[in-house]
Structure formats: structure tokens, C-alpha cells
Specification:
Blueprint: H1 2-36, E1 40-44, E2 47-51, H2 55-61, H3 63-70
Antiparallel strand pairs: 1-2
């Protein structure tokens, strides 16, 4: 039983590491995509912070952007 616990722990650590790496790649891709649109963005912990002149106005004026932000899919 001890062998199974150790193997399970290693699998859990590996899975966690892979998920963290995937999330980091996704955040980097978001920053790159925002940069291509002229929006300054930075990764702060687990969040991506974006800023640009007129960003809020652009967000509020574009229904598709607002809906994308609400998507849970």
C-alpha cells in the first residue's frame, strides 16, 4: 500500500505541475494577444492585468468582448 501512496503522490505532483504550466502558457498567450491589439498587459500572479487608453470604453462598446468575459465554457 505504501508504494501506491507514493506513486499517487508523484502522479498528483506531476498533474499539478502540468496544470500550472498550461495556465502559465494561457496567460502568456493572452498577454501576447492583447499586445497585438495595442493593449498593455502584464501577468500578476494568476491574473492578467490589462491597461490602455480607452480600454474600458472599448470593452463597454463591444458586446462580443463583454460576452466573452462572461463565458464559462
Amino acid at each position: 500500500m505504501t508504494g501506491n501512496v507514493v506513486r499517487g503522490d508523484v502522479m498528483w505532483v506531476t498533474l499539478t505541475r502540468r496544470m500550472e504550466e498550461r495556465a502559465a502558457r494561457r496567460r502568456a498567450a493572452i498577454v501576447d494577444a492583447l499586445g497585438e491589439q495595442g493593449v498593455a498587459a502584464a501577468i500578476e500572479g494568476e491574473a492578467v492585468r490589462a491597461s490602455a487608453s480607452g480600454l474600458k470604453a472599448r470593452w463597454m462598446a463591444d458586446l462580443s468582448l463583454r460576452e466573452a468575459g462572461r463565458s464559462r465554457a
